[in-house]
Amino acid sequence: MAIPSIKCQNCGINQLCLPVMLADAEVEHLDGIVQRTKPLDKGSILYRVGDTFNAIYAVRSGCLKSYTISENGDEQIIGFHLPGEIIGLNAIDSQQHPSTAKALETSTICTLPYEDLDSLAADMPGLRQQLMRIMSREILDDQELLFLLNKKSADERLAAFLINLSARYAKRGLANDCFKLVMKKSDIANYLGMAIETISRLFSRLVEKDYITIERKQVNIIDMNGLSQLAGVSCHL
Amino acid sequence: MAIPSIKCQNCGINQLCLPVMLADAEVEHLDGIVQRTKPLDKGSILYRVGDTFNAIYAVRSGCLKSYTISENGDEQIIGFHLPGEIIGLNAIDSQQHPSTAKALETSTICTLPYEDLDSLAADMPGLRQQLMRIMSREILDDQELLFLLNKKSADERLAAFLINLSARYAKRGLANDCFKLVMKKSDIANYLGMAIETISRLFSRLVEKDYITIERKQVNIIDMNGLSQLAGVSCHL
DNA sequence: CGATAGCTTGAGTCTTATCAACGTATGTGG
DNA sequence: CCACATACGTTGATAAGACTCAAGCTATCG
Fold this sequence. Notes:
2 copies of one chain form a homodimer. Chain A has about 240 residues and is of the alpha+beta class. Chain A has 7 helices and 11 strands.
């Protein structure tokens, strides 16, 4: 079920997505290959570990998490994906999805068939370069996360996580000091490699020290400087 | 100083590198843009954090490490690079190298000027696709490392590290059970997010339990199955 | 041969995980 | 609409794994 009114040309987040470096005519071409389907309900799955790779996906609205599942059954969350972000890139090499992507809330997705995208890339230097930049960025983000997990204490990790979310919301024109955690605390714990109990205690401590307030899942950052400092200033996660 | 006798066409590791999907004539074109300079001595630096991005690099022989440096000065090793691997991909987005690459032993490097590569990619679908696969693979590798650091104990991490090295040597036609650690133990510790002392103790334990022997930097894996099991079988690091 | 960097081993400590119990949402069926 | 079931989150007590500090040992290289 296509939704004709939405096009890359008038999409609010096209400057975070693939069209960044493209001329109007080029965006038109890109738009031509995009498949838009009805929104994904909370909890439903975009692709699963082992699925054949056909396309990469752009998040248009909502939020997804992606995670792998180890042989002993426990899951490792790899990332949370906000509007404008491209997912499925880790499947290009093996042509099979190595991770599962699940909607954390109702989300709309643009499907970009990979073969079509590759053909377009041949003739559109801007698209080719933006693709490369997005992949490069993802490599860098993963490496920064690596650093976070390897070298930072539990407090610092959580602070960095919140600062990172804050920055990403800001980039999307939303408040940077006041947002809703769409993921469960247990997801945060999993992502940051900690026990749920530890996350719970750390949130309590952040509240106690007046860095943030938290009501249900609504987070307010009161002391952005303090929190950034705790996170390690230059850590963009 | 160009070394004329080495060409992509006759390079022993071209099937691990960029030429994988290319026809002979295409490899010729690729070879045309490659810059080969004299070997990098042990300890010398290929690029530094902050350097302007001009090219990506293929390791032809030797071994390099790449690492970032945090504001408080401590370094975080991101990876060790063996022949056939492409490095510098994390700089494409920002056009500045976010990490430093240093030779751990005498190493030869092929420089691939990025603009030239991009132009070639326009006309060579195979090259374009191989580039994407290599980046995709790197994303995946980083994510697997993430999992390792987040969910595995110290023993498991070290075992996984050794199994990973072993597999990579095997892929290059070298023995998978008998190799020299080119990096210092402190580098391994840094990479895996542990203290040097811990790494030292873990090596002792692996030897004691007859998984490996180690003489200077020469490692022999005696019980590959046992070590793999300890590492978590399906963990390719 | 001596200086230095790298590595090993031991003792004590700290951070974070685990276990357990309890509190708080959320949602379903009567 | 309430009561219950279930999932999610909090808090406390205890334990384990890995870090730090300290001392000594072993390569390596000029």
